[in-house]
Design goal:
The structure holds 2 protein chains of 2 kinds. Chain A is mainly beta. Chain A contains 1 helix and 30 strands. Chain A has a 6-stranded antiparallel β-sheet, with no helix packed on it. The chains are: A mainly beta, B alpha/beta. The complex binds zinc ion.
Chain lengths: 336, 339
């Protein structure tokens, strides 16, 4: 009776694929329209899979985020910070340094990391602060309320208040080179991914540290699930989930999902409402997994380049992804 | 994998030696190739190139507690960023400041997995000023390190010295680094083809560039701290002995060993083994079969500070499979604790 069949990938029935011809650096969804924006390695932004390429940066787009109200905030290796809806407006021109990280919050906060500086602008585009760090800023995040910013760097991370009259950071120290940094939705934890294939976390209320090691590769993508119970992380041959409940993550074993193929997970995106994680792998495989059941839904087969960008539609009914080789796709889970 | 990696050339040299002249020539000459250039913040380029990246030379420790295990954190980020524009350039040139230690740059290509996947170190090219080199060697440590690290040394401003002076300078350079190729020039006017595409860190190329004077002489002059020691062994080595010994030598003496290169003949193996290390970060592999009639000599060069030449020689010789085991054990035990 039972026969083994190749898994059916949802992209075949519910996906739309496009060939962009340039590294897909990042994907964000417009807060007003829900349209995905694809930031590419040739400096263009595509709004929607069929959007005309718009040359927002001279070299490459290095970072993209959904801007405060609508459109896309991008940073490029031309040293510029731009926002694009129908047209592109340059919000900042920082000279020869790359703008490597951007973040935006609906409360009207924008941040752009450029060298050792974190430039903070408001929703109107007015520069509010230029915050200096001891070394190059290597990751940026804004907390859920839009009140605090965190910037990672060598030997730790610095936390700043947007509304502070006097800018003095709370320095979260930990020796070594920190990359991507994230606030927990509860605002009490900050987690960073380190050069030595480890994660480091700080609990702000009591200054406690958390360490998570044993990743075979650097974690370049991670996200908290909707209510913050889990931190889903890339950098292993499976999706590694760290529990932020029941006394965790300290002393609690992580959970692993969708492992087994000896291929590194490169991208993670958590569903906006449910405890569901999308994961992209170095061989191009994309899947969606439900944490509670461990059930895996195959989305796209390997073969079109390592997954370099992955994002859920803010309503959770569609998933957009892109690859290093310049392919992009949207898979729609809602009925047609 | 290797065809996919972007070659990276590291350009070092003291301020005023002619490094920027060389860089401008590489960028302006019509050779049909496009380069991304990583310069330090004080650098100045006379060429318009949208692939010029300003870097801060951020040297980071690798978190293993060792002071020589350092990488260039900015370079890890920059190479990651440049990969997003892959296909739009053919190579990367990293210019360092005159005061830079080349080790962290080189080690970045051994230590970071993503950098290793994306890029490969092609060579370290050092430009020195024939007239001022003696003064530089006398008053700084970096000038010496840059020579010790080099795969190619461009002896520039030759119009300012006579033949006798040039030979003296070359002798000084050779004492520090017998392995590098030396090219004389006046205004950094060397053929670009001799600077790029050298594959100096390709294990397969090490064997092609063995210096002819691996005589076992102690290349030591009294006014330099860094010296080189070269040895050869006529009988095939025992791979287990060599591995254990070299690992111990690098662990104990790695901070002082700038570069190590070797070509080894293993007992009962018909393949050439090539070995290289930058401080304690090592890399080795079989590269090809020994050719018919080729002399199966094992050769090794150490370039570093305060090297105990007799210890290194006796240790290397004791790795020969036919050397007495007790000798070998004694030589290994020497390196049991920091010297
Ligand atoms: Zn070390």
């Amino acid at each position: 009776m039972s026969t083994t069949t190749a898994p059916e990938f949802l992209i075949e029935t519910r996906g739309t694929t496009r060939e962009f011809g340039a590294y897909v650096v990042g994907i964000a969804h417009c807060r007003a329209t829900g349209t995905p924006g694809f930031g590419l390695g040739d400096g263009t932004l595509r709004i929607g899979l069929d959007g005309a390429p718009s040359q927002v940066h001279r070299g490459a787009v290095l970072a993209i985020a959904a801007d405060c109200r609508a459109g896309f905030l991008t940073g490029g290796d031309d040293g510029k910070l731009a926002t694009t809806t129908d047209a592109t407006t340059i919000l900042g021109d920082y000279g020869n340094r790359w703008v490597e990280h951007v973040a935006a919050h609906p409360a009207g906060v924008r941040a752009a990391a450029c060298g050792k500086m974190l430039h903070v602008l408001d929703g109107a585009g007015t520069p509010r602060k230029s915050l200096a760090h001891p070394s190059t800023v290597s990751g940026v995040d804004i907390d859920a309320k839009g009140k605090r910013l965190v910037a990672s760097h060598y030997n730790g991370a610095s936390m700043w208040f947007f509304a502070a009259k006097e800018d003095k950071p709370r320095v979260l120290e930990w020796k070594g080179s920190h990359g991507m940094v994230l606030f927990h939705p509860d605002g009490d934890h900050v987690v960073s991914a380190m050069q030595e294939n480890t994660l480091h976390g700080w609990r702000l209320s009591d200054g406690q540290h958390m360490r998570m090691s044993g990743y075979p590769a650097k974690t370049k993508s991670m996200a908290f699930t909707a209510k913050g119970r889990w931190l889903a992380t890339a950098g292993a041959e499976s999706v590694v989930l760290l529990p932020f409940f029941g006394g965790g993550p300290m002393g609690k074993p992580p959970q692993e999902l969708a492992g087994g193929d000896a291929v590194i997970c490169t991208q993670i995106a958590t569903h906006p409402d449910h405890e569901v994680v999308a994961a992209g792998f170095a061989d191009g495989l994309v899947l969606v997994a439900e944490i509670a059941s461990g059930k895996v839904l195959p989305i796209a087969p390997p073969g079109r380049g390592g997954i370099s960008a992955l994002a859920w539609h803010p309503k959770g009914h569609a998933l957009a992804f892109g690859t290093e080789a310049g392919h992009a796709a949207v898979v729609d889970f809602s009925g047609r | 994998m290797s065809d996919d990696q972007i070659p990276v050339t590291v350009l070092t040299g003291y301020l005023g030696a002619g490094k920027t002249t060389l860089l401008n020539r590489i960028l302006s000459e019509n050779h049909g190739r496009k380069f991304a250039v990583v310069i330090n913040e004080f650098g100045e380029l006379g060429v318009d190139n949208d692939l010029v990246v300003d870097a801060d030379e951020e040297v980071f420790e690798m978190n293993n507690g060792c002071i020589c295990c350092t990488v260039r954190g900015d370079l890890i980020r920059i190479i990651g960023g440049l990969m997003k524009r892959k296909g739009r350039f053919d190579g990367i040139i990293v210019e360092t400041t005159g005061l830079a230690d080349p080790a962290p740059v080189a080690q970045t290509f051994f230590a970071d997995d993503e950098v290793k996947r994306a890029a490969k170190l092609d060579s370290v090219v050092t430009v020195v000023d024939a007239k001022n080199l003696p003064a530089r060697l006398a008053d700084t440590r970096e000038a010496e390190e840059q020579i010790a690290f080099a795969d190619l040394i461009i002896l520039n401003k030759m119009d300012l010295v006579d033949e006798q002076g040039a030979r003296e300078i070359e002798g000084r350079i050779r004492a520090i680094n017998p392995w590098a190729q030396l090219i004389r020039s006046t205004k950094s006017d060397v053929p670009i083809a001799s600077v790029l595409g050298r594959e100096a860190f390709n294990l397969e190329k090490i064997v092609e560039r063995v210096p002819d004077f691996l005589s076992g002489e102690d290349n030591h002059t009294h006014d330099t701290q860094i010296l080189s020691c070269s040895f050869q062994a006529a009988s095939p080595l025992d791979p287990e002995r060599f591995n254990a010994w070299i690992s111990q030598v690098l662990a104990v003496k790695g901070q002082d060993l700038l570069r190590t290169k070797g070509i080894l003949a293993y007992a009962n193996d018909d393949r050439v083994f090539a070995f290289q290390a930058v401080h304690m970060l090592a890399d080795g592999d079989f590269i090809r079969p020994w050719k018919a009639g080729e002399e199966r000599l094992s050769r090794i060069v150490f370039i570093g500070r305060d090297l105990n030449r007799p210890w290194l020689r006796r240790g290397f010789e004791a790795c020969q499979a036919d050397a007495p085991k007790t000798n070998y054990e004694a030589e290994l035990a020497r390196w049991g604790a920091p010297a």
